[in-house]
Amino acid sequence: MTIFFTALTAFCFAVLAIKLFKPVAIEVGLLDKPNERKHHAGQIPLIGGISIYIAVLAASLIWLPNTIELRMYLIASAMIVFIGVLDDKFDLRVRIRIVGQIIVASLMIYGVGDSISNLGNLIGLGDIQLGPFGVIFTYIAIIVLINAYNMIDGIDGLLGMLSLNTFTAIAILFLMSGSQDYLSYPLILATATLPYLIFNLGFFKKFTKKIFMGDAGSMFIGLSVIWLLSMGTQGENASFRPVTALWICAIPLMDMLAIVYRRVKKSKSPFKPDRDHLHHILQRAGLSSEQALVFISVFSVLMSIIGLVGEYFEIAESSSLLLFLLIFVLYNKYARHYIR
To answer: How far is CA 65 from CA 60, 62, 71, 107, in A?
Structure first.
């Protein structure tokens, strides 16, 4: 019953935050304006991420135990949302954003005194222990996931649907493993994301007007995902195997890795924006924005299901990794046909 009220609290606070911050965003100019890459109509308030964070903060403070892990997560999240708001408003240079992300990662790593140290039995010769390289790997993982979810946010509903899928899949994994203490975290994030989706996609148009997630939201989502995955895969009482994490965040991860590879191959900055993301590729292949959203959302759910099935039946981690890499290679090969 507590879980229900926790989720309800997150949902209500998210709706309230959207209503309160929308006029503020218009007043201070926290708006997304159309340009050569952004083809939406009008100036849209960038408050989705702010609303989700406030909802998570409120539900956590009211209902969840006050642990050091939760405190550090909420503080680090506040920092990444603040950096994202500055980026939304002033379009920060990439170098400044990365420095900010490194500071946030440091808080997550050293504030709790934990890092990703075990990659699981990926090659069939026993668990890969990172030892002293675990901290470096954790920095990389945090920055990669933050930017993966940031880069994928390109059409209405996409980041919201992918986030909802990720948080739901993680909640199922915690439920499957009996990790009741962790179950509330992804459920809060999932229900806090729902109001954003309702407003972003224009459901109940009489009562809702479009908002965007903004960099504040996409980076906060990425940080939340890596926090949950790290918590679920590490330690003696890990809830699921590290390889399963790849399937849970497959679409943002594959999209980012493919994009970075193609940009670097062309001697371009990996952070230079373009129109070669998965949703752009699908649109060039003839799909509308709505059809691309449905296609990618279904693809994401199927990838998560593969991960969940592999976890449930304890399929060899090496086999799971090989299948993931095969799908990534096929995805990248298909995508190249529609790259400009």
So the answer is: 8, 9, 10, 20
Structural Rg of the chain based on CA atoms: 19
Cα separation, 95 vs 77, whole angstroms: 19
d(CA 98, CA 76): 14
What residues contact residue 12 under an 8 Å CB cut-off, 6+ apart? Answer: 55
Rounded to a whole number, what is the distance in angstroms from the first to the last CA of the chain?
52
List, for residues 91-135, the tens digit of each pLDDT value: 999 999 999 999 999 999 999 888 999 999 999 999 999 999 999
- CA 232 to CA 58: how far, in whole Å? 23
Are 6 and 59 a contacting pair, CB within 8 Å? yes
- Per-domain residue ranges of the chain: 2-239
**245 near 233, Cβ under 8 Å?**
yes
Angle between helix axes 180-201 and 48-63 (nearest 10 degrees) is 150
pLDDT in tens, 283-309: 988 899 999 999 999 999 999 999 999
Tokens representing 19 are 């209503």
DSSP string, 23-45: HHHHHHT-EE---SS---SS-EE
Residue type for position 202: G
pLDDT at 340 over 90: no
Token readout for 195 is 């109001």
Reduced to 3 states (helix: H, G, I; strand: E, B; else coil), residue 234 is coil
**Contact yes or no for 239/182 (Cβ under 8 A):** yes
205 φ/ψ angles, rounded to the nearest 5 degrees: -60, -20
Can you say whether the dihedral through the CA atoms of 260, 262, 264, 268 is positive or negative? negative
